Amino acid sequence: MPIFRFRRPKERQVTVFDGQDYRKAMLAAAAWLEQHKEQINKLNVFPVPDGDTGTNMAATMRSATNAIADVTDTNVAVVATKLSEGAIRGARGNSGVILSQILRGIAVSLDKKPTFTAQEFALALQSAAQNAYRAVIKPVEGTILTVIRESAEAAKAAATRANCDLIALMQEVVAKARQTVAYTPELLPTLKQAGVVDAGGQGLTTIFEGFLRYARGEATNAPPQIAPLEFEAVHRGAVSIEEEFGYEVVFLLHGDHLDLEGIRNTIVEMGGVSTVVAGDETMIKVHTHTPTPGKILDYGVGLGSLEDINIENLQAQSLRYAAASAAERGVADTSTARAGAISQDGATSPTSRRLAQLNQPIGDVATVAVVAGPGFEQVFNSMNISAIVPGGQTMNPSTQELLDAVNGVPASKVILLPNNGNIIMAARQVQTLTNKDVRVIPTRSVPQGIAALMALNFEQDLDANEQAMQAALDGVVTGEITTAVRDAQVDGITTHAGDTIGLVNDVMIAAGTDPKAVLRQTLDKMGVADREVVTLYYGAGVTTADAQQTAQEISAWFPEPQIEVVAGGQPHYTYIISAE
């Protein structure tokens, strides 16, 4: 009887990727992440209804892959650069910003390379890890940073082995990433207490898995192009500027041995004002205001090739902004929230008086804030905010959305208030993408944003205001009351799904089935007995009558501070409380 021997098919080997291979691999990675984003969202340490790491990373990858969806270039450096630029502009949340820096590190390493091998991609991952660590002011181990660093080290070790191709390399990367994610609770006690692994690290691992699946020829159900997330448009606030004439001219200039200082001086001599020239010897960005745009463009053409030319009529632009601001103020001014807050006895509160004093022209400084809730929007409009970017918990705006708001306000100096700890990194990215002087005040809550605006003095320069606004953050304590979405144990507090939970400055300090007891514990931890003013911002699901009743109870518990009630209209959080 004959013996049949079956041989395994020869394993697929991939020794080199060109630009199209890298493009398809990242499309597959984005699709794989999209399929698993909800599982990643559930890894949130706190059991609050705003676990959005998976959503933020998926949205960042959408922006990145949309930038390369139609690219036909086979040069890997071209694809990697476009992917990186798309990620940076579309980065949402801290995890999305770090992911964008990982992709940026890869692009830097692959610069000028038409293709890459396993050894070259291992070097790119090391560059990615270094870039990610540089992006964080205080790196914390047990996070996505640890995962990219250890994955890069695994890639470096694998690349030294004989016959290591891209599949073998990524197998080692994925295995190490999974192992590192599983170990993150041992590095970060809050993860261990909550019984979860790091969500950002899991998101990065999922991206690596999608990349590997493409290299192996496995399906990821990748759509040809993922539609970007839809977010509400930026709202203009009350803004007053001196009327400008002439034209704003912006363009990219490509050339050889470009002299930045000489070009800047020449444009100024040609009548350009507010002139900014930034870049290097081969590419610079020019931004200037001039009555003769054609003259500036002719000069630029004589130096090289122009790209992304944009010319705005400044007078018409000013009139558009004024009209938009007036229209929005017409709605906001009819609300009692315009005064900021009303105390229980109906008298004008200290907060109201301070907000009224802020209603004055802002000169050449604009303010941009991230705000969630129609009531909070009206409060910020009453404080002469120049533009509002809708967002907060569960809907972190992207770097591009923040950049659009900053570039859209008619001022060369901008103060940016993220008002959420998960938006601060994206806000800081804006500073590298605009020619405007942008100062990010690291506000971690909307009450901190309000306190920062109260410290703004338009008679002071930008540096002095930045210092004063940052100092004001220490004078406000933020409390939040919401509902647990799952069982958890965090910071020694045990909670179950459906419980009321209280947080103070982003730390969970109370949980239970009695909302009043949780509220009182939260207020105690906030130290409201020793504060002058306590402002109760009530959420979308709370009636005015219920909020006033809660305020009366707080006044009975703590008779010393003045209690104010304001309609915040924020989602997910029953109350956001400010104590000053």
Explain what this protein looks like in three dimensions:
- The protein has 580 residues and is of the alpha+beta class.
- It folds into four domains: 16-216, DhaL domain (Serine Threonine Protein Phosphatase 5, Tetratricopeptide repeat); 235-316, 2-Layer Sandwich (Alpha-Beta Plaits); 339-475, Phosphotransferase system, mannose-type IIA component (Rossmann fold), CATH 3.40.50; 477-579, Hypothetical Protein Tm841, Chain: A,domain 3, CATH 3.30.1180.
- It is 46% helix and 18% strand.
- It has 20 helices and 20 strands.
- The chain has helices at residues 19-41, 53-66, 76-90, 93-109, 118-134, 144-159, 166-187, 189-194, 199-216, 260-269, 293-301, 314-332, 350-358, 374-382, 399-408, 424-430, 446-454, 462-472, 515-526, 544-557; strands at residues 16-18, 115-117, 235-236, 247-254, 273-279, 283-290, 305-313, 342-343, 365-371, 387-390, 413-417, 437-440, 477-483, 488-490, 493-495, 500-504, 507-512, 533-538, 562-567, 575-579.
- The strands form five sheets. It has a seven-stranded mixed beta sheet, sandwiched between helices. Strands 3-10-9-11-12 form a five-stranded mixed beta sheet, with helices on both faces.
- Strand 5 and strand 6 (283-290) form a beta hairpin.
- Helix 1 packs antiparallel against helix 2 and helix 2 runs parallel beside helix 4.
- The longest helix has 23 residues, at 19-41.
- The N and C termini lie far apart (91 Å).
- The model is unreliable at 1-10, 222-245 and 315-361 (pLDDT under 50).
